[in-house]
Amino acid sequence: MDRVGSLKTLVASLLLPLIACAPTAGPTDGAGGVSSDSARQVPQRTLAIAVRGEPPSLALKALVAYGRSLRGSLPLFNGTLDWLDERGVANPYLAEAVPQLNSDTWRVFTDGRMETTYRLKPNLTWQDGASLSGEDFVFAWRVYSTPQLGHAASPPMRFIEEVIAPDPRTVVIRWREPFAEADLLDDTFQALPRHILQGPFQDLDPLAFSHLPFWSQDYVGWGLTDSSDGSRARSSKGGRSTATRWEGPVSTG
Predict the structure, then answer these.
(1) Closest to 207 in 3D by CA, of 154, 147, 139
(2) Among 219, 188, 183, 193, which Cα is nearest to 95's?
(3) How far apart are CA 142 and CA 162, in angstroms?
(4) Domain ranges for the chain
(5) Distances (CA, A) of 158 to 139, 148, 178
(6) Which CATH class for the 3-247 domain?
(7) For 135, phi and psi rounded to 5 degrees?
(8) Is the pLDDT assigned to residue 105 strictly greater than 80?
(9) Residues 162-184, buried b or exposed e (16+ Cβ, 10 A)?
(10) What pLDDT was estimated at residue 242?
(11) pLDDT band of 128, cuts 50, 70, 90
């Protein structure tokens, strides 16, 4: 399934539970108003999504290969610099804007190299509450460009020369050669929580690192721009299915 198909599957899986669970009109009093019991009802704050099959990892860019049919719920646990809409157009997600050719955000040099720059939105956090910064993208590039971990030869990694973070909210990707989809990264490049994985990455061999519990039951993905309401996405695995529970505000409008 391509990226657009995966997005449509995710949207459908999100909308069906909302439609099924949408509140009906509450009881009224004799004057036609809403009764006091109905007015005191607390809105449902948990959205549960069941996924057929158990993905071996909750990461968008996992270190273990598996079919795209199991990836429908993964955007709940992950954020990327941009995302593709149903027309295949890149839209900013964690970044404030996507790079624009012939501007300071997408520069092409005479020797064929390129440089794209992203400015991250403020107050981004991981699901454990730790701040997400540009250094998490730098660390992710180090992980995914390691040949033993299986992604170094695949796009866009094989085209990237270096990733740097001049400050906590800026990510600069330096390309060793022209890459037409430099502004359409979507799920091909994600940040990784440096505060959790940097130590194991330095201490463990690639095989042991790729089999850490972090990649499955202990996964920590992107959280919220404002986590003050305690919203979280959680996953529980059992048998051949994965149940995803979003604990937080759910908008039906």
Answers:
(1) 147
(2) 183
(3) 9
(4) 3-247
(5) 16, 14, 11
(6) alpha beta
(7) -65, -25
(8) yes
(9) ebbbeeebbbbbbbeeebeebbb
(10) 37
(11) confident
